[in-house]
Recover the amino acids of this structure.
């Protein structure tokens, strides 16, 4: 409260006295009222009084003047927190300043948020590869091709596969241990790394046994293979000394996982565990019946068709699209499109899985998941059936053509060829065929399933034909290009005859395009020629596209070959 002063008057030759009486006042404190909107609780950490306030139970407590720190704990770890009405900021913690005699308030609003995932980067040193088993995304990373993928908070199991089985594996830079398996714990918003160092000179291992026993209504699988483990199953039994085995316990409908015992007892109720095979071991997984249940409802949307199944086959939607499961159970759902459709993604309570499989949903409440299936185009359906759609809508079988990119490998798939008319009917598209000039009628066409890396880009569509004949002097060959030419037969233009090469790539780098398009579709069909051919001599036709902004060229290295013979004498 500070120092207080008084006044004493002194009279000459008169003694004076003064008494100071100091009396305490017990402070009563000032009210702080905390309100919660959403699922979670708020507690004060810097001063007692606010304890586990919820939306159903707001709190009011008295505090002395000064700062009070409040901490929010969302029920769902991915939810966000915003503070208002007397406090400010976002995140799980805020501070309220208490002034004597002035009541204070604070509101925590807890909102759901779809997680975007956190990067995990895996690097390999040595000869071998690394793959993730507990979540998709890391697939066959090597020293030449490190991998980065997004994962949600939790444990990700990584498995190393040395090229030489006697090599040893050591984990570092964000993960630890030796042996072929390690675990990386992902924390939302914090990028993670892991390095697998594969070294030669390992000792040839000896074998030891793992016995897995299942008690109750559930299964144990070995990851990443998904093989079911049980006492009678050989798939999970014999291992090399020093191996690490990943086991996953999953309860069936009507049960909950109750935990591990025997050699795995230290793992408690973790469903995904690692077992180090330094000697023979036995592990028992126990599942118990559950009476409290939640309902999962599955729906299918879109113009296409498909099925949704669960890991343990409780659901096959299909026919069964609802399931009642023990509260807290986690289901892994897989969406599989029918042959005429494509899977476009998850929504509702499985939206965080986007277009991935499986979608993981925990039944802490009644939930719904929807999978969207879209009907394929006729073009795509015909391609998947091994054919090429004609201009009249007929699906004719088509040959596969090898392809490459000017920048290296490509994800494009080419099909096409030459279709010759016999008895007024066009047959399958062949890679090569013999035809007679001014006699046989042919169609040449090709289709590309676009490299995913080029989807959405603007490209020049390229068609080039190499014709070898003595009529071209002095080289004996000429390159034609297919363009939108008004004065050339069917659009073919003798525009690059001066290039004295039989290699396709240098020509495709220079020729004019047939057209320029944006690759919005997964497929690109090009009809190149229809009719009779005029000049004898072998003709090779190449199809491809050139990315406008980079110059990258993707093309069929296998040409469509026509052996054009002179018309036989009548």
């Amino acid at each position: 409260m500070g120092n207080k002063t008084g006044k004493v008057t002194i009279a000459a030759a008169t003694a004076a006295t003064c008494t100071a009486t100091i009396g305490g006042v017990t402070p009563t404190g000032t009210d702080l009222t905390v309100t919660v909107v959403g699922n979670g609780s708020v507690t004060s950490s810097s001063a007692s009084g606010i304890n586990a306030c919820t939306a159903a139970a707001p709190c009011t407590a008295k505090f002395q003047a000064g700062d009070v720190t409040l901490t929010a704990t969302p029920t769902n770890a991915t939810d966000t927190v915003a503070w208002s009405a007397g406090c400010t900021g976002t995140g799980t913690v805020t501070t309220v300043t208490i002034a004597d005699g002035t009541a204070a308030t604070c509101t925590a609003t807890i909102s759901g948020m779809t997680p975007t995932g956190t990067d995990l980067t895996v690097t390999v040193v040595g000869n071998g590869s690394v793959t993730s088993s507990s979540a998709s995304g890391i697939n066959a990373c090597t020293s030449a091709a490190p991998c980065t993928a997004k994962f949600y908070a939790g444990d990700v199991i990584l498995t190393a596969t040395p090229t030489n089985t006697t090599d040893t594996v050591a984990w570092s830079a964000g993960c630890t241990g030796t042996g072929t398996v390690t675990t990386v714990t992902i924390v939302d918003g914090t990028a993670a790394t892991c390095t697998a160092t594969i070294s030669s000179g390992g000792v040839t291992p000896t074998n030891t046994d793992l016995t897995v026993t299942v008690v109750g209504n559930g299964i144990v699988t070995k990851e990443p293979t998904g093989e079911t483990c049980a006492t009678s199953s050989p798939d999970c039994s014999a291992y090399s000394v020093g191996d690490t085995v990943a086991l996953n316990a999953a309860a069936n409908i009507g049960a909950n996982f109750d935990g591990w015992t025997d050699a795995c007892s230290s793992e408690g109720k973790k469903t995904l565990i690692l077992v180090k095979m330094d000697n023979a071991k036995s592990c028992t997984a126990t599942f118990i019946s559950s009476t409290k249940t939640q309902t999962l409802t599955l729906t299918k949307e879109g113009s296409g068709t498909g099925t949704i199944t669960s890991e343990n086959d409780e659901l096959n939607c299909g026919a069964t699209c609802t399931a009642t499961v023990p509260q807290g159970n986690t289901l892994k759902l897989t969406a599989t499109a029918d042959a005429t459709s494509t899977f476009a993604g998850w929504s509702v309570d499985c939206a965080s899985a986007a277009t991935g499989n499986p979608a993981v949903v925990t039944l802490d409440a009644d939930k719904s998941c929807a999978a969207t299936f879209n009907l394929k185009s006729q073009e795509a359906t015909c391609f998947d059936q091994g054919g090429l759609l004609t201009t009249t809508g007929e699906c004719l079988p088509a040959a596969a053509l090898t392809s490459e990119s000017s920048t290296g490998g490509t994800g494009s798939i080419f099909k096409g060829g030459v279709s010759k008319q016999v008895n007024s009917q066009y047959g399958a598209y062949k890679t090569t065929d013999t035809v007679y000039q001014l006699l046989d009628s042919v169609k040449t066409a090709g289709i590309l399933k676009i490299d995913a890396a080029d989807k959405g880009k603007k490209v020049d569509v390229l068609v080039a034909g190499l014709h070898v004949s003595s009529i071209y002097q002095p080289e004996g060959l000429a390159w034609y290009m297919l363009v939108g030419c008004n004065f050339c037969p069917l659009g073919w233009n003798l525009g690059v005859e001066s290039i004295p090469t039989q290699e396709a790539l240098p020509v495709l780098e220079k020729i004019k395009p047939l057209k320029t398009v944006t690759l919005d579709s997964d497929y690109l069909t090009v009809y190149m020629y229809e009719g009779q051919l005029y000049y004898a001599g072998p003709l090779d036709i190449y199809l491809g596209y050139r990315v406008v902004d980079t110059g990258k060229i993707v093309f069929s290295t296998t040409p469509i070959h026509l052996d054009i013979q002179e018309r036989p004498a009548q």
